[in-house]
Amino acid sequence: MIYILMGLASSIIYAGDFKRFEIQPFGGATLTGGIPLESSDNVNLGTIHVNNSYNAGVTFGVYLNEEDAVEGLWRRMFTKGELPAGFVDPGSSLSESTFNLKIDQYHCNFLHHYTLNDPKACPYVIGGLGATTYYASQNGQSNSLTRFSFALGGGIKYFFADHFGLRAEARWAPTVLSASDSRFWCSIGGAGAQCVVRLQTTLQNQVDFTGGVIFRF
Question: What is the pTM of this model?
């Protein structure tokens, strides 16, 4: 009985030391690839260029044990895009090829952490699944498009105290764009149905470099 009580007491103490939750506001930069527009019959229709830009967001994580955690992520990128000529109607009021673009990502991430000799430093790998939403606007016209996305990456956390640390991360987070997406880009350029084609499925690549403050409890 004494040994059982001692075991329960030690487990309670251990549970009290275990920090299960993390909140991290972050910011950084996103490097983006263009969106190739190739039809299902292999006709090249050009590329939508997306500018590299800055991002901001927040994560909320829950540790399953000392090494593994799951987290929810929201990240927004503020940038501009440029349509190819075939997706812009030169006779409409929307003759500008450049448009404003916000890109939101909503991911559920899985993290696996590794132990180093320095207990304050904690490297990790990350994988995630979720959705990316494009908000495009030009000359008072706006539209949105949501598609499946995933992410792979890694980073390091460094804890200066039990409840406070820093996090740096690199993440490849491409979005899968499907055959019906030309309607979205045509509507932004004002070209309407005349430029709607069936596109091949493709990836729009995004690489995030972010850093932020960790609050752990």
Answer: 0.85
Q: Are 99 and 56 in contact (CB under 8 A)?
A: no
* 76 contacts 55 by C-beta, under 8 angstroms: yes
Indicate the residue type of 59. T
Cα-based angle 106, 213, 108 (whole degrees, multiple of 5):
20
Task: Give the model confidence (pLDDT) of 129-171 as tens digits.
Answer: 999 999 999 877 788 999 999 999 999 999 999 999 999 999 9
CATH node for 19-216: 2.40.160.20
Q: Both tokens of residue 21? A: 């939750």
Mark out the alpha helices in 67-191 (DSSP H runs): 182-189
Q: Pick from 111, 26, 125, 11: which is nearest to 69 by CA?
A: 111
d(CA 76, CA 134): 10
